[in-house]
Amino acid sequence: MSRIGKLPVPVSSGVEVRLNGRDLTLKGSKGELSLTVVEDVTLSQGDDGIEVKPANDSKRARAMWGMTRALIANMMTGVSDGFSKTLELEGVGYRAQMQGSNLKLSLGFSHDVVYEPPQGIQIQAPKPTEIVVTGADKQQVGQVAAEIRRYRQPEPYKGKGVRYQGEYIRRKEGKKK
Question: Which of 4, 25, 33, 114 is deepest in the core (most CB within 10 A)?
């Protein structure tokens, strides 16, 4: 029995909800997100928010119940408040700057890396060693941050690379004579 799935998703103020069969669309100040729900769960809009119920008592329906509720809650947060991830650049000469809407990274390669963000994602570089990725879709914000981090992952000997803010890098000891 899903404990998360039992809770209705409260509708934030300023968010427009459209429920059309299996399609749910949320529109808020930060953007518009839509979700097509699987056949194993049913959605209904009540007084206290959007309610998710399993369509039958199968194992898959019970698994999709909590997951669907969590996806809808993330969509609600995304269209009202938005999500953001901050990346830090650590290393001599590692820099980030904006070039129009694209992100230009100097990461120690022979060339600069230019990253073009997908639609719905905004990237900012408030400092030369800091990148802020913001958007309404939680999954897409995390994916963009992971793609930027993948250009130069933090290495364990000196800790150089692109890391998430607050990420701890386990350090290794170097060679001994």
Answer: 33
